[in-house]
Recover the amino acids of this structure.
């Protein structure tokens, strides 16, 4: 079976920040037991340039994990649909912290 793109979404926010989600169906293996590979990223763009401040992925050999600024931690995986929802909620929370001057 070949790799197949299941889902792709990219959004550029008014401030220039970027959110991109890619989900692929891949052959089940030790590295990808669910048969899914994913990359979800939120990139902050400002006068200093562009930098990833949030990312979810299941890189070969690392399993399911999340990058938050300079920290990396394991995350649970039930389905890619649920993970997309969790990532989008994380982005909303992060954007409130970054941009709400409240």
């Amino acid at each position: 079976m070949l790799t197949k793109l299941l889902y792709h979404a990219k959004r550029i926010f008014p401030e220039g920040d970027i959110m991109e989600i890619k989900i692929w169906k891949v052959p089940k293996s030790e590295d990808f037991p669910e048969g899914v590979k994913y990359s979800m990223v939120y990139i902050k763009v400002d006068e200093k340039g562009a930098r990833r401040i949030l990312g979810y992925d299941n890189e070969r050999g690392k399993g399911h994990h999340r990058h938050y600024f300079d920290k990396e931690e394991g995350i649970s995986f039930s389905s890619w649909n649920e993970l997309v929802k969790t990532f989008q909620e994380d982005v909303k929370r992060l954007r409130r912290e970054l941009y709400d001057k409240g």
About this structure: The CA atoms of residues 17 and 95 lie 10 Å apart. Residues 4-99 form one domain.
